[in-house]
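Summary for the steering committee. The consortium agreed at its last meeting that each partner would contribute one worked example illustrating the joint modelling workflow. Our contribution is presented below. We chose a case with several input lines so that the handling of multiple components could be demonstrated. No manual editing was applied between input and output; the record is shown as generated.
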Amino acid sequence: MAEMTPTSVQELAQYSKQMLDVLEWLATYGANPEGGVTRLLYTESWLQAQRALLAKMEGLGLAANFDAVGNVYGKLQGSNASLKSVLTGSHVDTVQNGGKYDGAYGVVASLMALGYLKAVHGTPRRTIEVISLCEEEGSRFPLAYWGSGHVTGVRSYASAAGIADLEGTTLLEAMGEAGFKPANAGEHSAVRDDIGAYIEIHIEQGSVLEVKQKQIGVVTAIVGQIRMTVVVKGNSNHAGTTPMTMRRDALAGAAEMVVLTESMALEEGGPLVATVGRLDVKRGTSNVVPGEVEFTLDIRHTDERKMDAFRTRLLTKLSEIAKRRELIIETVENLHASPVAMHQGISDDIEAACATYGFGSMKLPSGAGHDAQLFGPICPSAMIFVPSRGGISHSPEEFTEPDDLIAGFQTLVHVLYQYGYGGKADEIL
Amino acid sequence: MAEMTPTSVQELAQYSKQMLDVLEWLATYGANPEGGVTRLLYTESWLQAQRALLAKMEGLGLAANFDAVGNVYGKLQGSNASLKSVLTGSHVDTVQNGGKYDGAYGVVASLMALGYLKAVHGTPRRTIEVISLCEEEGSRFPLAYWGSGHVTGVRSYASAAGIADLEGTTLLEAMGEAGFKPANAGEHSAVRDDIGAYIEIHIEQGSVLEVKQKQIGVVTAIVGQIRMTVVVKGNSNHAGTTPMTMRRDALAGAAEMVVLTESMALEEGGPLVATVGRLDVKRGTSNVVPGEVEFTLDIRHTDERKMDAFRTRLLTKLSEIAKRRELIIETVENLHASPVAMHQGISDDIEAACATYGFGSMKLPSGAGHDAQLFGPICPSAMIFVPSRGGISHSPEEFTEPDDLIAGFQTLVHVLYQYGYGGKADEIL
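What follows is the complete predicted structure of the assembly.
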């Protein structure tokens, strides 16, 4: 085991091709006529996909089972039962009319990696498990990370109290109807405390890798996020009879704030991003000077201190704009999520694996949320990104080149082999 | 008649007080429980108000009649039938839940001015007529100036073809139901060619007079107006995964355009105004970089050449912003109305009348549209403004101080006396 690279190129190529096929096969579950995929938590298409994945895991010789909330595990039991598991996977649910890759790629690549390892290398020292997490997107119910939240103990049945979909079905009712009974409400029945590491492979959902022409991204951290609502109030007046100098135009003020937000974010530089995604002019009419505007502010950074400092500086500047224009500004913080660092040692091993195969790689932060941010605080965690064409995700147009999907798959296989069959992980886990 | 000032202070004061009472009385027609007034064209409250005004005119000794479309005239016949009439008035219709003053004040002040002149000064040389124009706002039907449009020949029954209210009733059906039959469709049956001058008194609907502490405004011109729709297209992207430098943010671009519109308008200075009143972010969501924004642009000026030049310069600058940001910009011009100058001679006479009574006055443009802009091209026309508290109009909160209403009334009486009983108007009309 001195070399620690997974055997023959020929067999890896064969499993790589199968991985692509399985990814297409999974996309048939919840396929929309228009080309997208919809698998919302606890719906029929979701249930069929999880059942099919469980059967697929069994077919590959893994010990497969549902947990209490609907996560599906496939276990490749290690010879040394005292070593904690390496868990790999992603989520099976999609947004409404999403793509074939978000979540699904991570589930399929992990599944086929275990299939390959078992077939070619047999029993590992350390148990390796694939997980198809039941939910990450929060698309049906306004509560994200239901799957990874249960495994890590962040979510409980109590978290879901009162949470219902647009039709009024509660999350717990839908869960029961899909066959998952919260026997002992309030208990974290799906919580695991024997996970040594979590490794997730996922599409980037951005265009950094594409622009930088890299096949693999190694995630340094999942950004923290601040979500705010900003209300700007001025005077609603007749657009014809109110001279420019007598206006208290809420939209002109808000527009200056939007422009300043962008320029301050550009000046601060990456990985900080700041976005005004929604802006509503209250009772906006072409011939009325706007009296009230509401907009959202989304600030993300891998460094919480810098994120908070930016927020403070920005809000000070926005207040100055409001004061100068005699506008009233009101801000409400709706979300404050801390960044989650990925594990440096695992990340370095992923980059080394890329070098082995000649895959161009780079480190980058994840600006989107992922299940890995739930695992990060409880065990060493890492993420591998592959490029998203045009940065598009959550859309039927989501696409990743097969070569890139394969590069990611082989990188994952390499690291899982090192960690499951070699002794390298013992230093970390 | 050397002095040409209307007699006793006492009688003028008495009619001034009556004018305030009649204004309150007219506000009972279409009064809403919440305090506003709604008199939409050809509705029951509108019809009752016009009938009551006709009766009031007859009660004051005027020869009153409806015309074919529902304008109500009250005529004070002059001794010299070869002289063209001086017409004074405004509109009786309101917006939905409007105020007591917009339009109504002009009708009532004109009506009571004729009542005073007849009672105190008897028969004039030149015929003076009050008109309660049937419609100006375009609130029920998307077609404004139906009343003054018919008198001036700008509107015909053909103009109303296909025009219907929100319930699908066409303008011509509603007109017929109210008892006004377009016997000969296509004819301008209500057109007048014997009007020598039109003088309208109206609330300012802005706050210039209030801020400048003047009781009377003399309108120099009714501004021309350009209405445009601007669409800005960029790339809709994930707010977390798209670095600031890789964005084509349609909202940030549009915001820069809004700020530039305001600063260019401020630099140009009055009477130009430019307003972005409506701005919609297409599918705006807090965590998505906006891909498309649509906003309106309203540009007004008393000088058409300067208005058009501003439009051209502004659009060039907006295109430069779009180009620099790699955004697509599309503009559509929905309206291009020329400014209408008010008559200098009449305006000077109005200012002189103000000086006679010691009413503080100033010349100013009208940024809002008025019936006078229909009369302007066919006969010497003028407008007298009184202050609007807080610049508010089209609202139950619309208010003008009684002292200011009286100042306007007395100014109007003075000018009508000079024009109807004196020879001064002969130089102009």
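Chain B touches chain A through 60 residues (CB under 8 Å). The radius of gyration of chain B is 24 Å.
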